[in-house]
Amino acid sequence: MIQLKTIEELRLMRESAQLVSKTLGMVAKEIRPGVTTNHIDKIAAEYIRDHGGEPAFLGMYGFPKNLCISPNAEVVHGIPNDRPLEDGDVVSVDCGVYMNGFYGDHAYSFEVGEVASEVKKLLKVTKESLYKGIAQCVRGKRVGDISNAIQTHCEAHGYGVVRELVGHGLGRKMHEDPQVPNYGRKGSGKVLKDGIALAIEPMINMGTHEVVFHDDGWTVTTKDLLPSAHFEHDVCIIGGKPVLLSTFRYIYDALGITSDEEEPFTMDF
How far apart are alpha carbons 19 and 24 in whole angstroms? Predict the structure, then answer.
Protein backbone atom coordinates (compact mmCIF):
# COMPACT_ATOMS: atom_id res chain seq x y z
CA MET A 1 0.00 0.00 0.00
CA ILE A 2 1.37 3.43 -0.96
CA GLN A 3 1.77 5.80 1.99
CA LEU A 4 1.03 9.36 0.85
CA LYS A 5 2.78 12.05 2.88
CA THR A 6 1.57 15.39 4.15
CA ILE A 7 3.53 18.56 3.42
CA GLU A 8 4.80 18.51 7.02
CA GLU A 9 6.06 14.94 6.57
CA LEU A 10 7.68 15.81 3.25
CA ARG A 11 9.53 18.67 4.95
CA LEU A 12 10.95 16.20 7.47
CA MET A 13 11.87 13.83 4.64
CA ARG A 14 13.64 16.68 2.89
CA GLU A 15 15.80 17.21 5.99
CA SER A 16 16.82 13.54 5.94
CA ALA A 17 17.48 13.61 2.19
CA GLN A 18 19.48 16.81 2.45
CA LEU A 19 21.74 15.28 5.09
CA VAL A 20 22.43 12.46 2.62
CA SER A 21 23.18 15.12 0.00
CA LYS A 22 25.60 16.94 2.29
CA THR A 23 27.28 13.66 3.22
CA LEU A 24 27.83 12.83 -0.46
CA GLY A 25 29.21 16.34 -0.94
CA MET A 26 31.72 15.70 1.84
CA VAL A 27 32.58 12.30 0.34
CA ALA A 28 33.17 13.93 -3.06
CA LYS A 29 36.18 15.78 -1.62
CA GLU A 30 37.74 12.49 -0.47
CA ILE A 31 37.42 10.35 -3.58
CA ARG A 32 40.80 10.01 -5.29
CA PRO A 33 43.32 7.30 -6.15
CA GLY A 34 44.79 5.62 -3.06
CA VAL A 35 41.83 6.21 -0.75
CA THR A 36 40.12 3.09 0.60
CA THR A 37 36.36 2.63 0.64
CA ASN A 38 36.62 1.78 4.34
CA HIS A 39 38.00 5.28 4.95
CA ILE A 40 35.11 6.83 3.03
CA ASP A 41 32.64 4.70 4.98
CA LYS A 42 34.12 5.76 8.33
CA ILE A 43 34.14 9.50 7.70
CA ALA A 44 30.62 9.41 6.26
CA ALA A 45 29.25 7.72 9.38
CA GLU A 46 30.95 10.31 11.58
CA TYR A 47 29.55 13.16 9.49
CA ILE A 48 26.00 11.79 9.60
CA ARG A 49 26.05 11.36 13.37
CA ASP A 50 27.66 14.76 13.91
CA HIS A 51 24.73 16.31 12.04
CA GLY A 52 21.94 14.61 13.98
CA GLY A 53 21.24 11.52 11.88
CA GLU A 54 21.96 7.82 11.93
CA PRO A 55 23.53 5.82 9.08
CA ALA A 56 20.48 3.99 7.79
CA PHE A 57 22.23 1.11 6.03
CA LEU A 58 24.25 -0.10 9.02
CA GLY A 59 22.58 -3.31 10.21
CA MET A 60 19.67 -3.01 7.78
CA TYR A 61 18.87 -6.58 6.68
CA GLY A 62 22.26 -7.39 8.24
CA PHE A 63 24.37 -5.04 6.08
CA PRO A 64 27.76 -4.65 7.84
CA LYS A 65 28.75 -1.09 6.82
CA ASN A 66 27.40 2.46 6.68
CA LEU A 67 27.55 3.05 2.92
CA CYS A 68 27.20 0.87 -0.15
CA ILE A 69 30.29 1.60 -2.24
CA SER A 70 30.45 -0.16 -5.59
CA PRO A 71 33.41 0.32 -7.97
CA ASN A 72 33.52 -0.49 -11.68
CA ALA A 73 31.65 -3.73 -12.45
CA GLU A 74 29.91 -3.70 -9.06
CA VAL A 75 26.36 -2.48 -9.71
CA VAL A 76 25.18 -1.85 -6.13
CA HIS A 77 25.52 -3.02 -2.52
CA GLY A 78 29.31 -3.16 -2.55
CA ILE A 79 30.75 -3.61 0.95
CA PRO A 80 33.47 -1.08 1.87
CA ASN A 81 36.91 -2.63 2.29
CA ASP A 82 40.63 -1.83 2.35
CA ARG A 83 41.20 -1.92 -1.42
CA PRO A 84 42.45 1.52 -2.52
CA LEU A 85 40.62 3.26 -5.33
CA GLU A 86 42.63 3.45 -8.52
CA ASP A 87 42.99 6.02 -11.26
CA GLY A 88 40.29 5.37 -13.88
CA ASP A 89 37.81 3.73 -11.50
CA VAL A 90 34.17 4.71 -11.41
CA VAL A 91 32.54 4.23 -8.01
CA SER A 92 28.92 4.41 -6.92
CA VAL A 93 28.39 5.70 -3.38
CA ASP A 94 24.91 4.98 -2.02
CA CYS A 95 24.06 6.62 1.30
CA GLY A 96 21.07 6.36 3.62
CA VAL A 97 20.15 8.48 6.63
CA TYR A 98 17.49 8.06 9.30
CA MET A 99 16.46 11.30 11.00
CA ASN A 100 13.26 12.83 12.36
CA GLY A 101 11.45 9.54 11.83
CA PHE A 102 12.10 9.42 8.09
CA TYR A 103 14.66 8.03 5.67
CA GLY A 104 16.75 9.71 3.00
CA ASP A 105 18.42 7.54 0.37
CA HIS A 106 20.37 8.61 -2.67
CA ALA A 107 23.47 7.86 -4.67
CA TYR A 108 26.07 9.25 -7.07
CA SER A 109 28.64 7.61 -9.31
CA PHE A 110 32.02 9.33 -9.04
CA GLU A 111 34.98 9.39 -11.40
CA VAL A 112 38.33 8.54 -9.78
CA GLY A 113 41.18 10.40 -11.44
CA GLU A 114 41.21 10.19 -15.25
CA VAL A 115 38.32 8.06 -16.50
CA ALA A 116 37.96 6.62 -20.01
CA SER A 117 35.70 8.54 -22.40
CA GLU A 118 33.33 5.59 -22.82
CA VAL A 119 32.84 5.46 -19.05
CA LYS A 120 32.18 9.20 -18.93
CA LYS A 121 29.46 8.68 -21.53
CA LEU A 122 27.87 5.89 -19.47
CA LEU A 123 27.73 8.18 -16.44
CA LYS A 124 26.31 11.06 -18.49
CA VAL A 125 23.55 8.99 -20.07
CA THR A 126 22.63 7.29 -16.79
CA LYS A 127 22.29 10.64 -15.00
CA GLU A 128 20.26 12.01 -17.90
CA SER A 129 17.91 9.04 -17.57
CA LEU A 130 17.40 9.81 -13.89
CA TYR A 131 16.05 13.25 -14.72
CA LYS A 132 13.94 11.88 -17.57
CA GLY A 133 12.36 9.56 -15.02
CA ILE A 134 11.85 12.37 -12.52
CA ALA A 135 10.10 14.45 -15.19
CA GLN A 136 7.44 11.73 -15.38
CA CYS A 137 6.57 12.11 -11.68
CA VAL A 138 3.37 13.95 -12.44
CA ARG A 139 -0.02 13.50 -10.81
CA GLY A 140 -2.10 11.11 -12.90
CA LYS A 141 0.80 9.41 -14.64
CA ARG A 142 1.90 5.91 -13.65
CA VAL A 143 5.05 4.23 -12.37
CA GLY A 144 5.52 2.65 -15.79
CA ASP A 145 5.93 6.09 -17.32
CA ILE A 146 8.97 6.68 -15.08
CA SER A 147 10.34 3.23 -15.90
CA ASN A 148 9.85 3.56 -19.64
CA ALA A 149 11.51 6.99 -19.79
CA ILE A 150 14.64 5.60 -18.13
CA GLN A 151 14.74 2.43 -20.21
CA THR A 152 14.14 4.16 -23.54
CA HIS A 153 16.91 6.70 -23.02
CA CYS A 154 19.53 4.19 -21.88
CA GLU A 155 18.77 1.49 -24.41
CA ALA A 156 18.92 4.07 -27.21
CA HIS A 157 22.63 4.34 -26.33
CA GLY A 158 23.12 0.58 -26.30
CA TYR A 159 23.31 0.15 -22.52
CA GLY A 160 21.88 -2.66 -20.40
CA VAL A 161 19.11 -1.78 -17.94
CA VAL A 162 19.27 -3.92 -14.80
CA ARG A 163 16.03 -5.84 -14.19
CA GLU A 164 16.58 -7.47 -10.81
CA LEU A 165 17.07 -4.25 -8.81
CA VAL A 166 14.58 -1.38 -8.61
CA GLY A 167 13.81 1.99 -7.07
CA HIS A 168 11.16 2.23 -4.40
CA GLY A 169 8.82 4.26 -2.27
CA LEU A 170 10.42 6.01 0.69
CA GLY A 171 9.25 7.37 4.03
CA ARG A 172 9.10 6.04 7.57
CA LYS A 173 10.56 2.85 6.08
CA MET A 174 13.52 2.67 3.73
CA HIS A 175 11.62 0.51 1.26
CA GLU A 176 7.95 1.26 0.78
CA ASP A 177 5.47 0.67 -2.04
CA PRO A 178 5.59 1.10 -4.94
CA GLN A 179 8.56 -0.55 -6.55
CA VAL A 180 9.99 1.61 -9.35
CA PRO A 181 11.70 -0.52 -12.02
CA ASN A 182 14.02 1.11 -14.54
CA TYR A 183 12.24 -0.65 -17.39
CA GLY A 184 8.58 -1.00 -18.26
CA ARG A 185 5.60 0.05 -20.36
CA LYS A 186 4.08 3.50 -20.49
CA GLY A 187 0.75 3.66 -18.71
CA SER A 188 1.42 0.60 -16.54
CA GLY A 189 1.77 0.33 -12.77
CA LYS A 190 0.47 2.37 -9.87
CA VAL A 191 -1.06 5.81 -10.41
CA LEU A 192 1.06 8.70 -9.15
CA LYS A 193 -0.59 11.08 -6.66
CA ASP A 194 0.30 14.15 -4.65
CA GLY A 195 2.21 13.17 -1.52
CA ILE A 196 3.97 10.17 -3.02
CA ALA A 197 7.70 9.98 -2.27
CA LEU A 198 10.03 7.85 -4.37
CA ALA A 199 13.68 6.91 -4.57
CA ILE A 200 14.33 6.73 -8.31
CA GLU A 201 17.63 5.03 -9.11
CA PRO A 202 18.73 3.97 -12.59
CA MET A 203 21.28 1.14 -12.47
CA ILE A 204 22.71 0.96 -15.97
CA ASN A 205 25.41 -1.31 -17.38
CA MET A 206 27.82 -0.56 -20.21
CA GLY A 207 27.19 -4.02 -21.66
CA THR A 208 24.65 -6.70 -20.81
CA HIS A 209 21.77 -6.04 -18.45
CA GLU A 210 22.50 -9.36 -16.73
CA VAL A 211 23.99 -9.35 -13.25
CA VAL A 212 25.53 -11.80 -10.78
CA PHE A 213 24.66 -11.95 -7.06
CA HIS A 214 27.72 -12.86 -4.99
CA ASP A 215 28.09 -15.27 -2.07
CA ASP A 216 28.61 -12.46 0.46
CA GLY A 217 24.87 -11.89 0.18
CA TRP A 218 25.27 -8.30 -0.99
CA THR A 219 27.61 -7.54 -3.86
CA VAL A 220 26.03 -7.46 -7.32
CA THR A 221 28.24 -7.27 -10.41
CA THR A 222 27.65 -7.12 -14.14
CA LYS A 223 27.79 -10.55 -15.76
CA ASP A 224 30.29 -9.40 -18.38
CA LEU A 225 32.33 -7.41 -15.81
CA LEU A 226 31.95 -4.18 -17.77
CA PRO A 227 31.34 -1.00 -15.72
CA SER A 228 28.00 -0.01 -14.27
CA ALA A 229 26.61 3.39 -13.24
CA HIS A 230 24.11 4.27 -10.51
CA PHE A 231 22.46 7.59 -9.70
CA GLU A 232 19.59 8.10 -7.26
CA HIS A 233 17.38 10.98 -6.14
CA ASP A 234 14.53 11.28 -3.65
CA VAL A 235 11.53 12.95 -5.29
CA CYS A 236 7.94 13.68 -4.30
CA ILE A 237 4.86 15.10 -6.00
CA ILE A 238 3.45 18.43 -4.79
CA GLY A 239 0.75 20.30 -6.67
CA GLY A 240 0.84 17.64 -9.34
CA LYS A 241 4.52 18.17 -10.18
CA PRO A 242 7.85 16.51 -9.30
CA VAL A 243 9.85 18.11 -6.48
CA LEU A 244 13.33 16.99 -5.46
CA LEU A 245 13.98 16.25 -1.80
CA SER A 246 17.66 15.50 -2.41
CA THR A 247 20.25 17.44 -4.38
CA PHE A 248 23.60 16.94 -6.09
CA ARG A 249 24.62 20.56 -5.59
CA TYR A 250 26.91 19.78 -2.64
CA ILE A 251 28.74 17.27 -4.82
CA TYR A 252 28.96 19.79 -7.64
CA ASP A 253 30.26 22.47 -5.29
CA ALA A 254 32.99 20.09 -4.14
CA LEU A 255 33.93 19.10 -7.70
CA GLY A 256 33.62 22.53 -9.30
CA ILE A 257 30.73 21.49 -11.57
CA THR A 258 28.15 24.00 -12.81
CA SER A 259 24.71 22.58 -13.59
CA ASP A 260 21.10 23.74 -13.86
CA GLU A 261 19.69 20.21 -14.22
CA GLU A 262 17.73 20.37 -10.96
CA GLU A 263 16.02 23.72 -11.56
CA PRO A 264 12.82 22.30 -13.11
CA PHE A 265 12.30 20.13 -10.02
CA THR A 266 13.13 22.61 -7.26
CA MET A 267 10.40 24.16 -5.11
CA ASP A 268 10.23 25.84 -1.71
CA PHE A 269 7.50 24.30 0.43
Answer: 9
Q: How confident is the model at residue 235 (pLDDT cuts 50, 70, 90)?
A: very high
pTM: 0.97
Contact predicate 69/80, CB 8 Å: yes
- Specify which residues 98 forms β-bridges with: 54, 103
Mark 9-31 as b/e (b = at least 16 C-beta within 10 Å). bbebbbbbbbbbbbbbbbbbeeb
> pLDDT-based confidence at 165, cuts 50/70/90?
very high
The whole-angstrom separation of Cα 234 and Cα 192 is 15
pLDDT class for 141, splitting at 50, 70, 90?
very high
For residue 248, count other CB atoms closer than 10 A to its CB: 23
